[in-house]
Fold:
Amino acid sequence: MTKWKRRNSKLIVGDKVVASFLGSLQNCIVTEVVDRDTYKVKTREGTILPSCKWKDKTPKDRKGKITSPWYIVKSGIKTHEDEQKSTRKNNDNT
Structure:
């Protein structure tokens, strides 16, 4: 059994994370540590997300909405339960 890193912990190159990319959850791998809170991650399909931060460290507007199209949700891999939460949230917003 793999021990996952705590949320907001420092990630290293090669760590698996789940990132939200344009509203959908993607399994990603950290390819570069840019600075203390910023990471470059690559999705399984090959898309590179250049300035990924943890969800609570991502810039927000005045209303508290996240302004970045991508951010790290958790370390580890996406599960079926995560996908159901994401789908349910999108259905509630429409």
